[in-house]
Amino acid sequence: MLFLADTMVKLLAGVPLTLELTFISVEMGAVLAVLLAVLRASVGVGALFVRFYVFALRGTPLLLQIFLIYYGLGQFAFVRHGLLWPFLRQPFWCAILALTLNTAAYGSEIIRGGLQSVPPGAVEAARVSGMSGVLLYRRIILPLAIRQALPAYGNELVAMVKATSLASIVTLMEISGIAYAIISETYRALEVFICAGALYLLINFLLSRAVAALETWLTPHLRQARV
Amino acid sequence: MSSYLRLIGFGPTGWGEQLLLAALMTLSVSAAAYVTGLVFGTLGAWGKLSGSVAARRTAEFYTTVVRGIPELLVIYLFYFGGSQGLTGLARLLGQSGFWGLNAFMVGTLAVGIVAGAYQTEVLRAAYLAVPAGEIEAARAVGMGRLLMLRRILFPRVLRFALPGMGNVWQQVLKESALISVTGLAEILREIHIGAGSTDRPFDFYITGFMLYLLLTTFSGFVFRGAEGWSLKGERQVVGMRA
To answer: What confidence tens digit (pLDDT) does each residue in B10-35 have?
Structure first.
């Protein structure tokens, strides 16, 4: 019991880093995902590029993507002498970059699905009343698409919380990194697994609750009338 | 370019042979994990659909917990915990020394159990998609449980489950890369060793990147072919065929 409590306290120290990795990469990834989805809906080279990007990032393991950025990029002299090297030599920013690029690929497909679900009539009505371009996207298309995409994006969020555990392999001491250190010190894998697992479950539970609340808030027309 | 080919190719200084063996290892550990996942998935779906409250609760617990925890932790559990448990068991049976699971078994079990949780949902949904009328019709013509399972339920569930099963396979293939932390000589492990023992890490990682893309793309084709085949008997709108 004492061991469990002690382990829990040690693991809690990793929670901020896990959340930081998740939120920074999900935020940047979401912005990139919207850009990619809009580009994908266009015609020409841009759409082709997005298709290849999504194909490549969804067809390979995330851990390999992290290694490619963290260990791979240093092979090139222009990277080592480049402006971004102060960032690219740190495991934290490499993990953030890999997680961001990865979630952007999955996210862009989710948003694409949302964009496709926007009824043509809504867009036509907006055009008839004189909206176009950015205003049309901001007022009509994106709100409808985001509402549709939200449940799937919630799943992606949970997947990202789990994915941050891979950052421990490039030496970051978030929850899984600390768990690994305790296990290799004490060899009490089951107890550590239970503690770390409980933390991840709690984070994911709270996140999916938050997404569900956001969904209810965004779809007032689907709520049951109060009797 | 030619120096890249010398590095990756099958020549005396090339890593081609190791990488080919590693690709085979990735495929075999993924296949073993996938089959394990199918077993757990079938049990899970059976539990979720069964009338027994205990079975339903157990299956619910299994899918909720496993899908909310990073795969890496599950691998650590089996890798370190497997030896913890087995050594303890061996002591009880009067054996001494260190007992543990080998890396292949750890990978198969860990990735398989995670895949089983996703497979549970796929199979459950597929079962629920089978029209009740077909089962009633089978009963009406006097089929017994086993015959109905073999002739009606199994082919129908498989047909509805195939697209989801394809997704689980892709997931297993990618998650098999995590088994590299146990030292199993699959693609990522060999690539990582190659990258660490030469001054050309990028060349190795990008090769691994292409190897995985090749595997996922190829198996995508296989599953799409299987889907098309399974739709042979369906009435369909033009162009719906996968």
So the answer is: 877 788 999 999 999 999 999 999 99
Q: What are chain A's domains?
A: 2-218 (1.10.3720.10)
| Cα gap B15→B204, rounded to integer Å | 9
* pLDDT computed for residue B236 by the predictor: 63
B176 three-class SS: helix
Q: Do B191 and A59 touch (CB under 8 A)?
A: no
Cα B149 from Cα B176, distance rounded (Å):
32
B-chain residues near A196 (CB < 8 A): 69, 73
Displacement of CA B241 from its chain's centroid (Å): 26
H/E segment holding residue A62: helix A62-67
As for the ipTM of the complex, it is 0.90
Band of residue B205 on the pLDDT scale cut at 50, 70, 90:
very high
A201 vs A162, A198, B68, B121, CA distance in Å?
10, 5, 5, 19
Inside any domain, residue B239 = no
Across the A/B interface, how many CB contacts are shorter than 8 Å? Answer: 124
CA atoms within 13 A on the CB side of A207: 23
Position B242 pLDDT exceeds 50: no
Per-residue pLDDT of A150-172, as tens digits, reads 999 999 999 999 999 999 999 99
Q: How many structural domains compose chain B?
A: 1
Task: Mark yes or no for CB contact B212/A176 under 8 Å.
Answer: no
d(CA B115, CA B36): 8
A111's CB contacts (< 8 A; 6+ apart) are A33, A34, A37, A145, A146, A149, A153
A183 to chain B: which residues are within 8 Å by CB?
A: 76, 80
CATH number at residue B204: 1.10.3720.10
Amino acid B233: pLDDT: 77
The rounded radius of gyration (Å) of the Cα atoms in chain B is: 22
According to the model, what pLDDT value does residue B60 have? Answer: 95
Please judge whether B84 and A190 are an interchain contact, meaning their C-beta atoms are less than 8 angstroms apart. Answer: yes
Which pLDDT band, with edges at 50, 70 and 90, does B91 fall under?
confident
Inspect the interface and report whether the beta carbons of A193 and B81 lie closer than 8 Å: yes
In a domain, B111, yes or no: yes
Burial A100-129 (b: 16+ CB within 10 A, else e): bbbbbbbbbbbbbebbeebeeeebeebeee
Q: Which residues in B lie closer than 8 A to residue A60 (C-beta atoms)?
A: 174, 209, 212-213, 216
| Domain extent at residue B151 | 2-230
